[in-house]
Amino acid sequence: MTAWVYILRCSDGTLYTGWTNDIGKRLAAHNKGTASKYTRGRRPVELVWKEGFGTREEAMSREVSIKSLTKAQKMMILKNG
What we know:
There is one protein chain. Helix content is 44%, strand content 26%. The protein is built from 4 helices and 3 strands. It has helices at residues 23-32, 37-40, 56-67, 71-80; strands at 3-9, 15-20, 46-53.
């Protein structure tokens, strides 16, 4: 199983970070408005970065660390791919 941490760019230019086991299904849910209260009003969203992990615990830990970063630091992650 691969667990993914991902960053979305919302229609208002903000960034959203989350984790999932199925990146395609989760992205579709975000764009449908059923995945997150935050992204519901900021659709459409675009997947701009993802990173795979072997366990959900690793992915969740990485998600927490990314969420603690500033937007500028997150932009560096996007830039460095």
